[in-house]
Amino acid sequence: MCNLYTVRKSAAEVAAHFGVSAPDQQFNAPEESYPGSPGLVIREQDGVRVLQSMTWGFPLRLKGMKPDSKPKPVNNIADVRKNMWIGLARKAEWRCLIPVTGFAEAEGPKGAKTRTWFSVKGQAIFAWAGLWRQSAEWGDVYSGVMTNCNEAIRPVHNRMPVLLQPDEYDQWLRGEFDDVLAFQERCFPDALIVMERTSELWSKRPATSANVGVNLFG
Fold first, then answer.
1. How many CB atoms lie within 10 A of CB 106?
2. Domain 5-59+70-201 in this protein, CATH class
3. Residues 145-158: pLDDT tens digits?
4. H or E segment to which residue 183 belongs
5. Element (H, E) at 184
6. CA–CA separation, 177 and 81 (whole Å)
7. Which of 13, 70, 152, 190 has a Cα at 20 to 30 A from 135?
8. CA–CA separation, 114 and 128 (whole Å)
9. Overall pTM surpassing 0.85 (yes/no)
10. Selected residue with higher pLDDT from 141 and 204
């Protein structure tokens, strides 16, 4: 699972990278995004790319949860062919690009895990393939598509986000369902991944029901 990523660029810089008109509004997305928190998303509306803030994670109520308890955010998509996702993945209007400057995985012993960061060589901003929808609980929400890791990431985790090159953005946003499947099944080039191990503690803030992501749909 990917439960932490950053966008350490301004909204104007993100908009310029993705060919979006300069935003005329303020966004509440933080530099570090956690499940259940706001994040920036690029989607298409009437054939034009727009920049929008959404909540990271589809709200899910687990069996046995109290009626007044908060839903859990499903922030990763393991398989777009599963029932929860396939209806969205088949329709271009529900696909999106998630701007990222780095994503992290936890590494080390329990209770002392640290953040190991990954980025894409030569790309100050890159894109994570995603899906979005409207929800009654949190308004517009999004989740990121995952795939098997490449050899560069394998020492830390066996899964990784589906990363897109700039010339692949349109294919993800407008392509056929077979294109979506192909992106999830491919292996992103090892040579393009940059890894940085740090001494930053993984848990910099207390875990709550609002920011602990789940991935129940395989």
1. 17
2. alpha beta
3. 999 999 999 999 99
4. helix 177-185
5. helix 177-185
6. 10
7. 13
8. 23
9. yes
10. 141
